[in-house]
Write a structure and sequence with these properties.
With 70 residues, the chain is of the alpha+beta class. Helix content is 19%, strand content 54%. It contains 1 helix and 3 strands; from the N terminus they run E-H-E-E. The mean pLDDT is 92.
Length: 70
């Protein structure tokens, strides 16, 4: 079996709908510029609050992708 190496980066997705939508937006954006995405792990979630009301959801995800030799 051939060995592989994966790189992990952290991204923060933002949504006004849900944490899930925020995580999806981060992964969708990463997929636009990175190849061979493998795993996205939710690392942290928080809320933006304005005047006592939730106005935004933020999800930090750790995304791994296969490291490509040049």
């Amino acid at each position: 079996m051939a060995s592989s190496v994966y790189k992990i980066i952290e991204l923060v997705g933002v949504s006004d709908k849900s944490w899930e939508d925020a995580a999806k937006s981060a992964v969708d954006r990463a997929a636009g510029s990175l190849k061979d995405l493998r795993i996205a792990e939710v690392a942290e979630m928080d809320l933006q609050i304005d005047d006592g009301k939730v106005v935004g959801y933020r999800t930090k995800v750790k995304v791994s992708f296969k490291f490509q030799d040049e």
